[in-house]
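Below is how a single chain appears once it has passed through the pipeline. First comes the sequence as given, then the structure the pipeline wrote out for it. We keep one example in the README because the format questions we get most often are answered faster by looking than by reading.
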Amino acid sequence: MTTRARRPGESDGVDRLFREPAEFDRMIAAGGLLEWSRAGPYRRGTPRAPLIDRLGRGRPVLLPLDPPGALAVTAAVPSARLVLLLPPGHRADPALAALAAHTVHHDRTERAAAELVGLLGSS
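Resulting structure:
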């Protein structure tokens, strides 16, 4: 979910969930976001209800999060597994790596995706 405006060709609910800042504020106040952060002049976050619903149905969820967001999600969903996705030649901060169940170095997007799917036990 983001407070930024849609770009040409983007659709609400398909590419992202686009929300006005006031609605985003209401969701924060109501505990409707698992995590949120600022991205330049905008904010982005992970809505709680759809994620919890999907997990409750036994479906895997992949979230591209920064370290604070990942920590917030694992605090709210203790069964969450953190996977660090790193570019080639990049070393993770040791404290961050200690929190992650796995580290995937992505020299090729397809290979990283296949490795993530394998970690989820999906086909």
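The radius of gyration is 16 Å.

See the next section for the split statistics.
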